[in-house]
Amino acid sequence: MNVDSFRLRFLMEQLRQRSDDQTVQDVLKVIGIRNPENPIEAVDEAQFIRVACDVLKDSLFGIKAGLNFRHSTTLVGYVAKYSRSLEMAIRNARRINGAVFPAYDYLLTVSGNAASFELSAIDAQLSKFHRHREMLMFGALSYLRELTQTGFYPLEMRFDHLVGGREADIRKMAGCPVMFGAEKLEMILPLSALDIPVPTYEPALRDHLIAYGERLVADQPNQNPSLRARVEGILVSGLPDRLVPAEEVASDIGMSPRTMARRLKDEGLTFRSIVDDLRLDLGKTYLKSGISVTEVAFLLDYADTAGFSTAFKRWTGVSPRQFAHATE
């Protein structure tokens, strides 16, 4: 799913400030990005953060970068900039978000004495990139603060993944309560925050840009996620409770198991290979976060630790403990 590369270029600069230009170029080469000025695949942005974390040996790189995200020169950014209040900045920007970053949607809902700013992946395979999701949420917070020229704090931030030994550091950086392993990726805001005015409010410019953006969204080609991405999204949503079986995945997608198997085969894939790749990907992510091997086995729906350890060593040539030790 193609997205604007503005945030990738911002992330490149963040990495450059902590290393050098050659390191940035090396990371781009690993991902396969030749020209960061052109639109990119959303997954490439997520991969950039993952590789940068590895290169810097800093799993908090995405959050640190997000907290430095204060300006957006995209159409979405300008619509927010010319809106009346924080609430309307979020609502107006969402109307045209599909023209800039269609891989994620966001929703603002008000209930009781609080509001929820929720992020959800349209390209479902992005759900497995935890460091990217952290960057998006902290980036949204930082940008909304800059937009309103205030230093407001959320009531709580919620992430639908676990972070192991990083919890205390993340809570300190957030400056507010943070929940991990939540049902949604969301930020809970006090109702008073919604009324914070945006000092750059310009209704005529806002209306013009929204109209232009809505035309762009209407003219956008349909970017349906790949079959693999749809399968991965269903599998991720089922964990850690259970590994959704192939028959149920096919039903959720709207195919028979035989049709799904045939279409995956046409792409050189099998359901089992997707499951194995996903478990390996998430397993590495959890181990890098300092989560114990026993808990990782549970999170990936293995019957026991031995089953996970055997599979991990078959995939990587090293045991989970050896891998975790090497990435400390």
From TrEMBL:
GO cellular component, one term: cytosol
The entry's keywords: DNA-binding, Transcription, Transcription regulation
SMART domains membership: HTH_ARAC
Coiled coil location: none
HTH araC/xylS-type domain location: 229-326
Any GO molecular function: transcription cis-regulatory region binding
Signal peptide: none
InterPro entries recorded: AraC-type_N, Homeodomain-like_sf, HTH_AraC
SUPFAM superfamilies: Homeodomain-like
PANTHER family for this protein: HTH-TYPE TRANSCRIPTIONAL REGULATOR GADX, HTH-TYPE TRANSCRIPTIONAL REGULATOR VQSM
Protein name: Virulence-regulating protein VirS
Species of the source: Shimia thalassica
Designated gene of the protein: virS_2
